[in-house]
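Sample log: YkgJ family cysteine cluster protein.
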Amino acid sequence: MTALRPQGEAPDHPVKALHDAVREAYAVCESMLDELQLDPPLACKRGCIHCCYNQVALTEPEALFLGLHLLGTRSPERLRDLANRARALADGLKGKSWREIGMMRHRLPCLFLEDGGCSVYPARPLACRGWNSVDEKMCLRSNLSGDALTPIENHPIVREIADGIQSGLLRGASAFGLEAGYLLMARATALLLSGDPEQGIMDTTADWLDGKPFFGRKAKW
């Protein structure tokens, strides 16, 4: 699969341009967050997976960047297994509103929570980068109680940075006449890996860059 990786494309290839644009957006986000002097400091650290029991939303550029990451890091067999799990999770969420999904979040581990950590950490969406707790005990209480309304303190400025960069991706996509919106990561992954997972990622990316809908390919969930 090396030939399909973004870094193997010609410099002006639109898939590489998309990949580089999202990678740069993520790098800007991380750089800005690293410069912050937060008091209290963020409690998030390696091995902490409390927030991985959520169904986060992401934009088309983020979803396609994630797909390209999967294409470059997973075997065909692992992609097919992921496709099956994504479809099962998406089917389980069918017909549920954002609020209903949020209220049952403790029962829905992220698709990419594997071996006690995030298996797509370099390609995780901005929602994961910008929502950080300042107290691990709050997160633990929330998960143990199963109460989605349990308060978890976080820093608004961190969220605003991630949200602002995500909005920039949407505005940029819209300016080029491309579909721009949000979808749950499980549903986006199921769409990306539909049919032949390997070819589906590249076809979906090419279609979106050509102005065709990605999230809009399936009208109802």
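Observation: The chain is about 50% helix and 5% strand.
Observation: The longest helix spans residues 14-35.
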